[in-house]
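Hey,
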Amino acid sequence: MDSEYTFLALMHRMNYIERWALMRNARTENVGEHSLEVCMILHLLCEIGNSRFGRHLDPGRAVLLALYHDAPEILTGDMPTPVKYYNDRIRESYRDIEEAAKDRLLGTLPGDLKEKYEKVLTPAEDEKLLAGLLKAADKLSALIKCMEEESAGNGEFRTALETTRKTVLDLAGEYPEVKVFMDEFLPAYGRTLDELTNKVSEEE
């Protein structure tokens, strides 16, 4: 019986997949580090929702979904947004490709774990709010990347910054947690390390 399973070794390869592949980057970003940032943002959105808006979200479940949300890209690569959303036919085809990639990844697990990870790779039907916040966290991470590139003097991201900010603002109208993040947490991303640490000292 073959007892060697490749699932986790494949997950490790998130670190080899670069995002924003069609664009000139001041600093490259891989899927692994993006996934970590989405985890932290989504966790915070859930805590904001529970604390301020009477939600009953499971932050641990949220982190798991965020951790694996781009796992299919290990097999498909990161398809650039202008290509992925060029038209409905391409978008639908890419969804089919993602589902096939998920099936292949699940096939790299032992049978007694497949069902567990199937729930991790795809939000359940009754998790629409969590799925929506996951999308918002993903877009917030993209917005932060665009802001960093613009701050580095890279005009290549100018249009992406505008379109991503608009998408996030639309999501903020749907999810108040996103508005809180934009008002209270996003501005700090433009500050220097000295400014950030001095802010901590002032608050203490």
